User: Fold this.
Amino acid sequence: MNKNLHYITFQSFPMFSANTIVTMKMLKYFKKKEYDVSLIFPGRNKVKSSEEEILKFYGVSEKINIYRTNYLLPFGKINFFNKSSFRISHFLWSVFIWLKYKFNNVDYKNTILLTRSSWVLYFFSFSKYKIVFECHKFSKLTKYILKLLRKKYNCGYTFSNELLKNCFELSKIQENNTIIAPSAYDEDEFNKKQHIKNENEVIFVGRFTRFNKDRNLDFLIEAFSKEELQTYKLKLIGGPKKIAEQLRSTIEEKNVNNITVLDYMPQAQLIQTLSKSEIGILINSAGDRHSRMHTSPVKYFEYIRAGLKVLAIDFESHRALPYSKQIFYFDEGNLTSFINGLSTLSKKNSMKYSNINKYSYDSKVNSIDNLFARLEGLEPPTL
Assistant:
């Protein structure tokens, strides 16, 4: 009998967000491992996309069961008190899902749960289900909940890096059921063909804001307006469209001719564009603790799989990435540091990232599958 994997999340689908893309990639590769895969999420979106439309949106051809629950809670329905409404709605929805599983007698022996929700983790920890919690950022709530679960054997944990893991006071039991699982890339999206790199072509891919905060892209516009970088070309690819239009207006006002702003594009087209670029940029604002300390950017893993050299703002989170010694760094807000770093990096030979397959979704899913086995007592804990 195939194992059932249920991914229970308070996210919305479909959405142009790194988090939902990662979720769908994970489900895709669990399906490749012959799990019967289901996605359970609240029906917050006003437009109700069908299962086929959601899978097509993410370019997933594998069969994934998609269940959108009824949703009558305030978050997403009202445009004020967003933080409070999110917390209340998240809590109540998690209770609803837990009770639904409890009273519908969903087969716990052949069903494994995966979640990003600390409340889903909390409630299901008191059941017979084996559940793995994907921890991608620090919060006081998550720290409190993990303290409450110090003696739970049925809970597993993944952290994006050691810095994030060290923010939590894990028990011996929790340590034994923990792995480090950074972001990953999808090998299916890359072909074996060697692409010719466009010399001095620089690229940034991702959402133009992070948690509704500026991502420091004005700094890039300022840098590429300087005389020293006129032989370079920068592509900014992402959204939302409103921010993209603002960036285009700024570029036009400053009469900068070597920057192109492109809207979100299909993943296959994006990978083709990446593969022809020479240098990838990692940039964020220091005002966000998650960006400074804990982020594991999906785009970084796509950059290196595409053979790009990487220039990154000097944050601890970036120095915690795989192959961090091959990254060139610049100081936040320092144009001279950025320009010198870009100039030096462009003169380097192409980068070689050994054993990069360790950072594919296939490898990541194998690691989590082994963690499931550990929770079931089929694999000894890592010493």
